[in-house]
Amino acid sequence: MSNIRVLLVDDHDMVRLGVRTYLLTEPDVEIVGEANSGELGVELVQQVKPDVVLMDLVMGGIDGVQATREVLAVYPQTKVLVLTSYLEDEKVLPALEAGASGYLLKTVLGDELAIAIRKVFHGETVLEPQVAAKVVANLQKPKPVAPVTDLLTEREMDVLRLIGQGMTNQQIGETLYIGIKTVKTHVSNILAKLSVEDRTQAAILAIRKGWVDGESKKG
């Protein structure tokens, strides 16, 4: 079996040194690169294509949350394992929402870190117990239903209103003075954001909710 290829992203040299020194003792782990910033981390991911990225959260430039999004955008095959000193809600939940497969504190023991790397590599989620408790608490909170205006952009609302009026993509494009490809992009975004499968369902939902009773903007 080939080694698990790991990229270290942390702006503290001593942290990277300590993590690298320990992981070099693990026979199935290979350090394929190091980055001292989120931006460099994203660049290196494209170059070395790691299996797992150990990601710090608070760094100069883009933070670890944004870096996680960009890493998974350019190389979705990799797994991001957050390794940070921060346990605040404003760090934990955004990191997981960005696609991180795990969240550990830097107080973790070396053998626990190695085990976590193997787990996320194999598709498991690894959370510090305190982090897991925060996730559970957040899931238990009642979620307010966002108004459609918070889900869709103004232009997507324009397109949705015209879909509700039964217009084709061609007619929508002519009405809003936009290209057919742009219309298709808006329609795809609308379906995804409203969690419906097709434009008919979107139109029914829009009419039922009263979202299509206004006049569409042009231009």
Question: Can you walk through the features of this model?
Answer:
By secondary structure, this protein is α/β, with parallel strands linked by helices. It has two domains: 4-140, Response regulator (Rossmann fold), CATH 3.40.50; 148-209, Arc Repressor Mutant, subunit A (Orthogonal Bundle). Helices cover 53% and strands 13% of the residues. It contains eleven helices and six strands. The protein has helices at 13-23, 38-48, 64-74, 89-97, 110-121, 129-140, 148-151, 154-164, 169-176, 180-194, 199-209; strands at residues 4-9, 29-35, 52-55, 79-84, 102-105, 126-127. Strands 2-1-3-4-5-6 form a six-stranded parallel beta sheet, with helices on both faces. Helix 1 (13-23) links the parallel strand 1 and strand 2 (29-35). Helix 8 (154-164) packs across helix 10 (180-194). The longest helix has 15 residues, at 180-194. The relative contact order is 0.09. Residues 214-219 have low confidence and may be disordered. Residues 145-210 form the HTH luxR-type domain. This is LuxR family two component transcriptional regulator. It comes from Tumebacillus permanentifrigoris. Residues 5-121 form the Response regulatory domain. GO terms for molecular function: DNA binding.
